[in-house]
Design a protein that fits this description.
4 copies of one chain form a homotetramer. Chain A is 50% helix and 15% strand. Chain A contains 12 helices and 10 strands. In chain A, helix 3 crosses helix 7, helix 7 runs antiparallel to helix 8 and helix 7 packs parallel to helix 9. The two termini of chain A are 31 Å apart. The mean pLDDT of chain A is 94. The interface between B and C is large, with 50 and 50 residues. Chains A, B, C, D: This is Acyl-CoA dehydrogenase.
């Protein structure tokens, strides 16, 4: 179980770190300031697009692109463990993942198409996604049901001749606000009378298809996260070709499972990067700011707080690396146990570190003057996105208990 | 130590509860929707003003007004314990406190003027504040220093003939965004060479005085809290009459201490009301929503989570009532020990309850569809507003240890 | 809701505090040292008995006796709130409760007899218990079943002519090790075919009845708690008169419920007294001991730790007093909700305070040189004695949710 | 950073696990039952010695011996990472470590002699220790000073001709109760006027030297841990030869630091093994015991509790392995940072897991019927043995902050 940085990935980590520090972070504020200048917060200004596409062009030119394609013959063919070190770096800036074409939900969507798509589907959707020419969304969660139990998902798709006719509502369609978002992968019910886990399918639905209404952006603690957005979308008799079906009727859960593993762990990797940046900010603050005649670091419990953050980050990172290693080395089912663990641990840890960092900063910590508040709200959604903590804990406990059920007390 | 609801306050609680439920809450959404319609988010629309002033007029007409004037001959002459029950009710809606002219920072500012103001100052500022005709702000915190140690406050006021000439910056001036805000009570340095606790004074500065620039609204987790606002303000050679000084030169801390006690506990009372509403929302959700074939309440640890929230609310409420009783019955110095306790406990408890409630709601919990996210961000600022947790804990420990210093081990 | 110390109880608290400080605590070490000197750790030496009976005689002579008889015409007729202040004092020494004839399990057993006993039963058992002449045990828990669900209790009692014939095993019979323990109140199954809650009865069984074998003392973290003891007892064809039945066949749960409320809250009151003593010890240590050139109190997070302990004690005490007030003022069913709350809160709080105090003491904290380790192990058992935390939390949540089931979301 | 089980250590882990399961654990109860049968609890019966020496002889015969000699040319030459897997197994039974001659404090003492001893010292003390023929103790902590700051250590050693004359008191001398314990490594002050860190030396003192009085065993939560024992020892004019000095005058801290690193991490490794056994017991209990008509595992928060335990164990193990890897691959100073981290994390985690397991077991959990209570008390002492948590956290924070002091805010 080699969890260190491999010789192969070490220079990549350096390159990615340098580019984020020298080229991405310096543009953060300008990018932020552009939001809304086009009138509609979800219409991007030319400058906004230039910033993003400029960064992407630079990264692509240096072949710093699509690192997430792990275990693949395309690109670098990194292991998941190797990618973890890169993703952590990308966590430090909210523009970084897209710069390297490694951002959610595109990476997960690309995995779906690569793994389950037909050649035609790949040509149409995967190619431009891999090239960073378009973006995509994944439509899963619905407002009227507890989507933590995905069998509740109810948007219906009925075959009418050569077309699926789709009706229902989705929300938290992340990235669907972006004008460059061209395709939705949509979980829906195609076979309502089948067994519970055979009712659902996934279908490609091009953004802008007739019958689609983007009702509103969902707000996260008051923020619309424009222009990315987490959109609430209505489908009214939306028609798409029969061939837009992915993998097969009733195989929606199979597709979902294939998609969710990597997506979950990528979120965790980036969360660790955020925690590192938050701890760095906390330490810098503690080492410079003064109150009551002392540096903050020399007051009260601040040494203890900093030590606890360091220890929790280390443990979460190691667990994340182990989960990554499992993805590289054991079956998907076995790895799921580890992904569930890190999915609970990483966001919670990062929330704690960011919260402590905010507290060390006082008012500045919750304001626009530090990246901490934005980090916190994003991380908070991770505690239920891709499955709430409770569901993942249940999964972990089940695996644990399976070894003992019907075995009796200790021999 | 009578901590129950007195016979006198019981009907008032009923009235306040009913008015909030029947008249205030139903206008919340409309009020929210108005924000920004005037173009500038800090310019209120006529409808916005009508909503607020209409509610105030109704409350005033029923004599449901200025309840916060505890231990006073004016108004109801409630005890702090009695007021606690009313303030808790007001915590349930963010429009409620203003409806009854009980909102921060006005109540604290009015206390200052009533207690320390000259008759002329009272006539000019207290009267319209008591009548709800104007609003006010309290300018304390500064961006360039750790204001948790208030001796760091540095905005300077130099006497030049009959005028104070003021220079410096303040931020987190809550309420200063409101166009109805007409007066700032401003902590400043008038005697830089005096003893550390004798350097500061408080001065009335009318909003809009020449030399004042409102630089920007501070954001709280991305929200500007318009039109109330937490403003960042620059003073450049701002001139105000000599008589605008409160109480006397070098007595700024004396004034601050008188102001902060009640303000701190009022925040806590309302925090408890917010926690109650969050728990109610959590229970309603748990009792209706279904996943995995069960009501949410019947899944996993949800019974335990709900029980813990109930117990923590009860304990925090009792501690808050005891602190209120102390304010009514012991010296300010002794009561401070209790206020520090509840100032640490109440926001933390409420944050926890709201966080659990958000988690039970999934995506809806962090969105605009429930009041939870707004509650959370507001409560989060309470952990450093009016003194960060660490400072209050230090205060509590000091009182505790004083009994044992130089006493040796147990006899 | 008056939760303060009443004028009536104030002098009693002073008296009790003084007697514990001046007469009970000074004998603690000598009493401890006697244990085991008689050879059998459960055979008390003359000196041991003299210490206990001497203290009792003194207390009785001063009429400091049977304070626990709340709401009764006998004795002081204290309210439960008043008694709470006395019980807290008694928590400070492990010999104190018995000194005043206020110790578990006797108080609970006396309540049972007073409330449900026949005159003959009262004459035989209650009188000597009230007089402190004998002691008693309560036999509930069994080794072979999860007794947290009391319907599992299985020791059988079969009527054979005028006698009950009893067979089965009990453990954790606290106090049954004491040679002065003369009577067991025993929960058993008399009507196995009845409804689940009508199968059990409670029967008086004199200690030493033929067929009873005391198998062993249960150890608590390695301690046998001699001579009190928590005994594991076997019943083999134990015969007692038919009239030893309490209240009636199948009414075992009714009796149990009447018994448990007061017993639970008394434990909590004493736990708070223990926490106070632990905090005092921690502060004395922190204020005297030096390391790294400073007093311990001035190192690291120690101020914060002390402050947290103070705040948690205050909150738990207030909740305990509120639960006591409920016992005095509302129905038993309503009060149960509050007793469940404090039953979860008080032991957990006290464990935390004692644990922090141990940590401040280093090695001494877990050793025989401070009372902390003994406190900790005793308190730890309270987290499942008289119902584990999980069962009480369930109770609290149930009451909470009842208000919302079938009510839908917030109106 | 390879943290997995190497091919070399895999079969050893299997062998150790099998021997513990098949030969050590089955003798645990008999061994326990022997304690005290010789009258004096610290005098071992023949059977007791036979059990221990029998196990040792078997292990030695199979060459399962002195695994702890990491990075050494003697024995297996395992890495610390490899040894971690073995030590974890040994954590599962309290007789296991001694069986393989891997128990504290002998391993630490042997390291000291191997690293710093003269050939004569090695011949006299190291040889029989490596052979398992004698045992040893390490005398550091003193009752009258805060020994968490080791510069406080005050037992004096004055050179008088060719002899050191030693006076003072030590306590918590673990293992000094064992009649087979023949040598004490003793930290003392030889140069009281030197610089603070140059005052102390370490000296070999044979057990039983004239002037030594073993005052009493310290109790840990009431247990004397006989026959191992944690002894309180007085030195009155104890004379030992000048050559018993280790390494050199004033080099006591140098010796201590060399000793403590491995000792601390070995404790942590075993703590993880204990946690694993506690979790296993909890799961077995949860999967078999019934209450309220359900298996315990299907009640309340038990799934969540089990999942949290699994996740915390995994993280602590990974951190422990990383600290071990650091010991193998970086300087002692750098590794210290990691050892401090795991020293805080592992005991805390294990205490939590054992506590939850106890709660799942109810009364049985704190009693002699499970190994949990004994585990808990042992683990609790680890939170201050070899440095209290606070000191280790301080160490971790210092390393963290060093990177930022005088660096200012984020560039």
């Amino acid at each position: 179980m080699f969890l260190g940085m491999s010789d192969r990935v070490k220079p990549l980590v350096e390159q990615v770190r340098a580019m984020i520090r020298d080229e991405v972070v310096p543009l953060e504020h300008e990018y932020e300031a552009e939001i809304g200048k086009a009138g509609d917060r979800f219409a991007m200004t030319k400058r906004q697009i230039d910033i993003l596409e400029g960064l992407k062009a630079k990264a692509k030119a240096k072949n710093m692109w699509n690192f997430w394609l792990t275990g693949s013959e395309q690109g670098y063919g990194l292991t998941t463990v190797e990618y973890a070190y890169l993703a952590e770096e990308m966590g430090r800036s909210h523009l970084a993942a897209e710069t390297f074409n490694c951002s959610a939900p595109d990476t997960g969507n690309m995995e779906v198409i690569e793994r389950y798509g037909t050649q035609a589907q790949k040509d149409r959707w995967l190619k431009p996604l891999l090239a960073g020419e378009i973006r995509s969304a994944y439509l899963m969660t619905e407002p009227s049901v507890a989507s933590s139990d995905a069998t509740n998902v109810s948007l219906s798709a009925v075959l009418d001749g050569d077309e699926w006719v789709m009706n229902g509502e989705k929300w938290w369609a992340s990235g669907a606000g972006d004008p460059r978002c061209k395709i939705y992968i949509t979980m829906c019910v195609t076979d309502p009378d089948a067994d519970k886990h055979k009712r659902h399918s996934q279908i490609f639905v091009p953004a802008g298809t007739k019958g689609i209404t983007v009702l509103r952006p969902m707000q996260v603690f008051g923020n619309d996260d424009a222009p990315h957005g987490h959109m609430h979308i209505r489908f009214e008799n939306v028609r798409v070709p029969k061939d837009n079906l992915i993998l097969g009727r009733g195989r929606g859960f199979e597709v979902a499972q294939g998609r969710l593993g990597p997506g979950r762990i990528h979120h965790c990797m980036r969360a660790i990067g955020q925690a590192e940046r938050a701890l760095e900010l906390m330490c810098r603050r503690a080492a410079t700011r003064e109150a009551f005649g002392k540096k903050l670091m020399d007051l009260g419990a601040n040494f203890d707080i900093i030590a606890e953050c360091r220890m929790e980050i280390e443990m979460a990172r190691l667990l994340c690396l182990k989960a990554a290693w499992m993805m590289d080395n054991v079956s998907k089912v076995e790895a799921a146990h580890w992904i569930s663990q890190i999915k609970v641990v990483a966001p919670r840890m990062a929330l704690k570190v960011v919260d402590e960092s905010m507290q060390m900063h006082g008012g500045a910590g919750v304001s626009q003057d530090t990246p901490l508040a934005k980090m916190w709200t994003g991380l908070r959604t991770l505690r239920f996105a891709d499955g709430p903590d409770a569901v993942h804990r249940r999964q972990v406990a089940r695996t644990e208990l399976k070894r003992y059920v019907n075995r009796g007390p200790e021999p």
